[in-house]
Amino acid sequence: MNKERLEFGLAMGRHSTATLHDLTRLLRYGATYHRLQETACERMLTDKERKQEVRTEEAIEKLCASFGASVEFQGDPRGCTVKIQVSDGYTNDWGKTGICVPTA
Fold first, then answer.
1. Which of 15, 25, 30, 104 gives 20 to 30 Å between its CA and that of 70?
2. Helices (H), the chain
3. Whether the Cβ atoms of residue 12 and residue 88 lie closer than 8 Å to each other
4. Residues 38/77, Cβ–Cβ less than 8 Å
5. pLDDT digits over 6-28, tens only?
6. 3-state DSSP call for residue 70?
7. How far is Cα 56 from Cα 30, in angstroms, rounded to an integer?
8. How far apart are CA 29 and CA 59, in angstroms?
9. Which of helix, strand or coil describes residue 82?
10. What is the DSSP letter of 71?
11. CB of 82 within 8 A of CB of 101?
12. Residue 90 — very low, low, confident or very high, per pLDDT cuts 50/70/90?
């Protein structure tokens, strides 16, 4: 487990009611979303990729709602593309908007 994933797990454990299963799913969805944003920066997404992007966003939103959080999506893959906004307002990103979901 790398440092970013460990920090993500600790932050979410302290500031949300997400389960380990929820966090595992967020990491997987976050990696998919990040990959799609990288592709979108290189070229236009295909219809299939656009549908996958929408499905991924919906899955993340639904998962976050299940433990009382919301999500902010960023299209620039040079930074964090998925940030979880927890009810106590804790953030770990420079813009102070949420907890970054690592993608590596």
1. 104
2. 3-15, 20-42, 47-66
3. no
4. yes
5. 999 999 999 999 999 999 999 99
6. strand
7. 8
8. 8
9. strand
10. E
11. yes
12. very high
* Terminal Cα distance for the chain, rounded: 10
Tokens of 32: 């998919």
pLDDT in tens, 56-86: 999 999 999 999 999 999 999 999 999 999 9
Q: Where are the domains of the chain?
A: 3-100
User: pLDDT averaged over the chain?
Assistant: 95
CA angle 78, 40, 93 (to 5 degrees): 30
The whole-number pLDDT of residue 4 equals 93
CA 43 – CA 37 distance, rounded (Å): 10
User: With contact defined as beta carbons under 8 Å apart, do 1 and 95 qualify?
Assistant: no
